[in-house]
Amino acid sequence: MKPNPVIIWQVGYLEKAYFSVFKHIQHFERQNNQKKNIMAKNVLSQPLLIHSMNNLRELIRRYFHLLVFLILQIFAIVLIYKNSNYQHFVISTTMQNITGPVQNFANLFYKQFRYSSENEYLIQQNIELLREKDNMFIFSEDLVYSVFLGEGKNKRRMYEYTSAHVVFSTINKTNNYIIIDKGKNEGITPDMAVLSPNGVVGVVSDVSNNFSTVIPLLNPNSRVSAKIIPINQIGTVVWVDNDPSIAQVTDIPQHLMVSVGDSVITSGYSDVYPKDILLGTVIEKFDNPNNSFLTIKIRLATDFRNLHNVYLVSNLYKPELDSLKSKHKNE
User: Does the pLDDT value for residue 304 go beyond 90?
Assistant: First the structure.
């Protein structure tokens, strides 16, 4: 490929311009060498702004050759880039290889930040939907209310929701636990129910100012009153295996018809968990030769291996219920 005469002329012109600038620079240096010592003596007595300007001018004078070279070099590259198709292609490809990974990383960082904001928004929207479910209220018959409003029941809110993030959890220990990023400062108290978007997680045990510890279903100290649908039989969900996805339902008589695929939900016979929250699904059942109850295995609804966001549920009437229970305990 023959050299482009336009490029040759431009390069030659740039060389002549560079040597001309170099001669003027030498003359400029000779004139300013005598002033250098005088400026150094007066630096301490000059105002800060003048001192800074002198430093800048000295910096430019010291690296003037390099700056002129870089400017002319960039100018030459721009001319070559615009007037030669081959060099245009090579430079464009090289810049894409350099900036491509950087741009991908920047896009990934931006997406993570955006998805985090969108996730927080969806969590709040989900909380608003959960707050309006029927199991969040106490329903009572009210004849006057029915006559005037045309409805058969009056309702009072019993539970309130808030959200939190999991900062630490274990699934392969005997006594597993979870730590979330909310505590006393956010109104978290012991015995609050902890749920996931799919089902039950556990109950708050200990609270500090900014964090809380949760006893999950994957803990032998956990006991949850449950109900098997559709037979509506009450039992207890316990964790006896070391599998973080499997639990058992106890206290179900052998004569009852329990089928694989039946749902297990919270019974509502607790001041911690709202009723009708999914605990899991029956995957196996067999008679226990040691007693008259079935051994029922369920697959837990919550994926404890991939648990990041949780909901905390507070019973607004729990102090009143605890007060009544304490009176019966003393009897």
Answer: yes
